[in-house]
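The instructor's notes for this session suggest beginning with a concrete chain rather than abstract definitions. Hand out the sequence below and ask the class to guess, before any prediction is shown, which regions might be ordered.
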Amino acid sequence: MNVKQNESIMEMDPTPIFQMNMSFMPSRMICAGVQLSVFSAITSESKTAEQIASQTKCSLRGMTMLLNALTGFKLLEKAGDRYGLTPISERYLVRDSPDYIGAMMEHGDMLWNNWAQLTEVVRTGHPAIRVETKETAEGFFPILVRGLHVLNSQPARQAALSLGIGVAAKGLSVLDVACGSGVWGIAIAEADPSSRITAQDFPGVLNVTREYVERHKVAKQYDYLPGDLKTVDFGENLYDLAILGNIVHSEGERSSCILFRKLHRALKSKGKIVIADIIPNDNRTDPEWPLLFALNMLVNTEEGNTFTFPEYRRWLCEAGFSHVEEFPMGKHINSDSPLVVAYKD
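After discussion, reveal the predicted structure:
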């Protein structure tokens, strides 16, 4: 080894590796804050550590350290011995807020326990749990989609705008597949009051969909199709538009290719399918989030993954769609992933 190589090695800083290894700490901190109702306990009035510890039935020592850590991450603010909410925690981490995203954090131990098995999952290729099955989905997704509704509301509105909903495209018949909270279909219903939306999902999930449809005051535009997307009959030549909002990654290639063929049959002539998902670059080297989310699918599903645009294009063309293109969406929850839009002749 020459001198320059030796100096280069000596200059390497292991700190990023150490920080990456310890990056679970902020996750556990915010989950603890939500699970212990810290943010909901403070609400609009700042309080002392003693008051918050008493209200949440926690030790003073433990609560003080948690409050200080939350302050360091700008989730709380501190003046003297009193702690108050920051604007972001008041909006997103207080249970009574309409934009509360903490439902999944309340159950954060489930994801934590599943990811703790990553080494064995990689070794065997078998997931810790299968969230895509009906039994698990009807317990897991009603919790998950409450946070996703808030996170995806703006991307869904942007998608409706990009597709010309309410301007160039009006009165569409829309199928929202595995709709969850209904966030993608609701954005279309709001943009075009003459549209008609069919929301499909497991019966236990559709109960949550109905709640959000009512909240957004678009119930008159909605029909419901309960069932498993793998077996439900979508019909033939019924819809102008089919939406797959963050569905393909949990289904995997085999199930998704079957689904694409079913949706091609269900669409009218000149209809299209719109896919919003988490898409890595063509070489699967960037961005970080789609690559990490692929591991999340390894841990939580039997065949799930994140897929590249060339893969989507090939599968959709094989399903009968004549043209596939990307619609840029800008920065959002799915990094900078574009919409994938495929057209039927």
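Then share the key points. The longest strand covers residues 267-276. The chain has a mean pLDDT of 92.
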